[in-house]
Fold this protein.
Amino acid sequence: MSRVQPKKNLGQHFLKDKTIAERIAGTLTGNGYGTVLEIGPGTGILTEFLVRRNFSDFRVIEIDNESVHFLKEKFTEGIEIIRGDFLEMDIDSCFNEKLAVIGNFPYNISSQILFKVLKHKDKISEICGMLQKEVAERICASPGSKTYGILSVLLQAFYSAEYLFTVQETVFVPPPKVKSGVIRLTRNNVTDLGCDEALFKRVVKACFNQRRKTLRNSVRSAFTLKREDYTDFGLRPEQLSVESFVRLTNWISENMIYPNE
């Protein structure tokens, strides 16, 4: 069986510690979904422990041809190996039921993976993954934290976020320059935010893009308003909960001056 070489252009850092791989595989609860999809299995160290969990439908998606050939030699049953790019995958046509997503996510596309998950939040019930520690902490941060930001609000609007444990640089080949963090996101019961979801995203991004400013200044820069007397305009974005952003979105919707108005 040929050895897979990590490729810099794909952001590959292969986990070599089986104890940690087993621990990550164990983060999946198995609740509320019928399919498990692993993103970027590489050499299959995490895959090995996921196969042992005997999920009724277990698939992996891998963009690297060398890894695909390696995985097909290593795993002959209990798994469907897909050659492709998760970011280009048509989730709705590929999966008929709820699914969980897991993986050692490449640092350079981890945010893109999570934004794609958000687009398919009604189908993806759980996400367990390893990311750059700073990003993992940001996703799970609470209001008032310096790391609380766009990803925190958008993901926590629809998922419960847990930071599970930290992984040191030395357990990878090649070792990254930063530590990693393992998180679990579990779909909550929210089906309707109670506001215009597209506007909600615009408001959250506009506020955090100028996070040192008060809401009054960041909102004024992004929207033309009929009035500027919103109760929380003196706060900074990191002080607002998801529910507070929903209220702000509804207020902006009512008081925004639209083009040609």
